[in-house]
Design brief:
single chain, mainly alpha, ABC transporter involved in vitamin B12 uptake, BtuC, two-stranded antiparallel ribbon, ABC_transp_permease, Branched-chain amino acid ABC transporter permease, membrane, transport, transmembrane transporter activity
Length: 343
């Protein structure tokens, strides 16, 4: 039982990332009908927003520290971040320590702008083009963004630690009555799961309970009729593209302490997130979320050593095997709607 609970917990953080990326992908496809292969790059840009803010906050100046001397007894020069010299060592150090959560505020306007610029500058020209054209142009854009990030940040992963308060692990086993240290789970992975839950609930509440969201859902069902009512549905869909970009970016921001950002992380998640969308059902927001968590947990179970001993490499292909089985039995996915991508 403890092994089962541990693997469920291990699958939640990756499943959260899959669900958030797939949610943004489904929002874009459901509103604009665009297959956006650059969505993984938005996840990567969000992660590098956290890296950028961390680097900005740690910009330092050299000052003489009379308490430290070299072997000749001369005072040494030490680097002190400007943020500490402005706000004091205690408060300034806390700002640096909490750079990842603070990067949420830093990333939101950036991701909204990137999403808006992407939609207005490129995507709008491909609304009525075949899906193959959309895939090619957005995949090309993803490669360009990837190479830009590689040029400015390098090819190596950049460690971006979680705040000191969330380092370490929580003993779930002791809380549930198991032996101590039987089920250990990092605090930040718990934070990421809760954060994903808040974002997902926020998106669904926005679409379900606001006038803007109701119009968007109506436009997803019948765009022409909503347009005939005098509503500028295109402008609302552009805003939704920006919101979808923000969701992917925030998923990347909070994932940085779990997986150090690198220039190809967007591609790593892109293919898997598309599999999640297809398994959940094209155009189905609940399906994307449910499939994200389901596949994340299955991947965690497949990574258990005794399973890999029986079927070597199963952890690398389990998601694709599940996708094949589901699509053979339910061609529209778990919650797919009739008529979506069915010509």
């Amino acid at each position: 039982m403890d092994a089962i609970l541990l693997q469920i917990l291990n699958g939640l953080d990756k499943g959260s990332a899959y669900a958030l990326i797939a949610l943004g992908l489904t929002l874009i496809f459901g509103t604009l009908g665009v297959v956006n292969f650059a969505h993984g790059a938005l996840f990567m840009i969000g992660a590098f927003c956290a890296v950028t803010l961390s680097k900005i906050l740690t910009i330092s100046k050299e000052v003489v520290d009379p308490t430290k001397t070299d072997f000749l007894g001369n005072p040494l020069k030490v680097k002190v971040p400007y943020i500490e010299s402005w706000f004091g060592e205690s408060f300034g150090g806390a700002i640096i320590d909490w750079s990842v959560p603070l990067a949420i505020l830093f990333a939101i306007p950036i991701m909204l702008f990137v999403g808006y610029a992407m939609e207005r500058g490129l995507i709008k020209h491909f609304y009525k083009r075949p899906h193959a054209d959309q895939i090619l142009v957005t995949f090309g854009l993803a490669i360009v963004l990837q190479e830009v990030v590689k040029y400015f940040y390098g090819a190596n992963p950049i460690p971006t630690p979680a705040p000191e308060a969330f380092k370490g692990s929580f003993d779930f086993g002791a809380m549930l009555g198991f032996e101590a240290n039987a089920i250990i789970y990092p605090y930040w992975r718990m934070v990421y799961f809760l954060f994903a839950g808040v974002i997902i609930a926020g998106v669904f509440a926005f679409l379900q309970f606001t006038t803007f969201g109701m119009v968007v859902r109506a436009g997803m069902a019948d765009r022409e009729t909503v347009g005939l009512l005098g509503i500028n549905i295109d402008r609302r869909f552009t805003i939704m593209f920006g919101l979808a970009a923000a969701v992917a970016g925030l998923a990347g921001v909070m994932y940085t302490p779990i997986n150090s950002p690198n220039y190809h992380m967007g591609m790593d998640f892109l293919v898997l997130s598309f599999v999640v969308v297809v398994v959940g059902g094209m155009g189905s927001l609940p399906g994307a979320v449910a499939a994200g968590f389901l596949l994340g947990i299955l991947e965690a179970f497949a990574s258990m050593n005794w399973i890999k001993d029986i079927i070597p490499g199963i952890d690398q292909i389990i998601i694709y095997l599940v996708a094949i089985v589901i699509l053979l039995t339910r061609p529209r996915g778990l919650m797919g709607r009739k008529g979506v991508m069915e010509d």
